[in-house]
Design brief:
The protein is of the alpha/beta class. It has 11 helices and 4 strands. It has a 4-stranded parallel sheet. Helix 9 runs antiparallel to helix 10. The longest helix has 22 residues.
Length: 281
């Protein structure tokens, strides 16, 4: 399995989760053994200039925090893009480390239907309107080289248009949307036979009081003999033992009860997140 993440240039530089994920990329319990990051760098974030959105020359500079190789490639040159992507895949498979492909391109229209980019980016969009679209640019090159004929090119375009038109026509026959078809991994039992969610009633999850008492007792004791524990911690454990005896529960003990009951059923529990090893929360 090879993980590929697709980013926008403004998000790559501006979203903290990107930086955080890079720092997770080589940790033993979190690594994917290398992710390929593809940045669609259209040099604008909604309507924000790069110079107003980040302090570094390139949006991909954040990847330097883990010394990931970064390839900047002109997206108007499809063969260069293919070459760079092959090198990126080879890097990832050889070294099992992250790698970044920065596709330097442009956005022909606005951010969405409501955005008229000529209002906010007049100079940039005057330049963009002069650009020959990449498909025509590449087709002209291939025809000039004699790699394909004009007729072959037009047939390919017509074939693709036909696929789109037929799919659009077929889509009008669909009257029901099956939600589960759009999920990567529908939970078994979550939907009924025709794909609709079942009622959200929960099965009873209660456990016998003796088991709760047992978990509470274990959670408030120290398993090692003659082990000197911190006085502050012994106070917490003593208070927890008293709560268990008095049939009271606070938030922390409730979590212990939940984890403990699942463990008693032989289900492995892995805590993941901020400071779990120290039990800060």
């Amino acid at each position: 399995v090879m993980s590929i993440l697709l980013h926008g240039d403004a998000a790559f530089a501006g979203q903290g989760v990107v930086y955080e994920t890079f720092h997770l990329s080589d940790l033993p319990s979190y690594t994917t053994n290398g992710t390929i990051h593809v940045v669609v760098n259209n040099q604008i974030g909604f309507t924000t200039d790069p110079r107003m959105a980040r302090s570094s020359p390139y949006p991909t500079d954040v990847a330097r925090v883990v010394n990931a190789p970064i390839f900047h490639v002109n997206a108007d040159d499809p063969e260069a893009v293919m070459y760079v992507c092959s090198v990126a895949a080879e890097w990832r498979n050889t070294f099992n480390k992250d790698v970044v492909v920065d596709l330097v391109c442009y956005r022909r229209r606005g951010h969405n239907e409501m955005d008229e980019p000529m209002f906010t980016q007049p100079l940039m969009y005057k330049q963009i309107h002069k650009q020959v679209p990449v498909l025509k640019k590449y087709a002209d090159k291939l025809i000039a080289d004699g790699t394909v004929t004009l007729q072959e090119f037009e047939e390919e375009i017509a074939k693709y248009d036909r696929i789109c038109e037929e799919a659009y026509t077929r889509s009008k026959d669909k009257k029901i949307l099956h939600i589960k078809h759009w999920l990567d991994s529908p939970w078994p039992g979550f939907f009924n036979a025709d794909g609709e969610p079942k009622s959200m009633s929960c099965p009873p999850t209660g456990i016998p009081e003796e088991l709760l008492t047992h978990i509470g007792t274990v959670a408030s004791s120290v398993p090692v003999q003659d082990f000197k524990i911190h006085s502050g911690l012994s106070r917490i454990l003593k208070a927890r033992a008293e709560m268990t005896q008095n049939r009271l529960v606070d938030w922390a003990l409730a979590e212990y009860m939940a984890f403990g009951s699942v463990l008693k059923e032989g289900i492995h529990v892995r805590l993941s997140g901020q400071d779990v090893e120290r039990g800060t929360f």
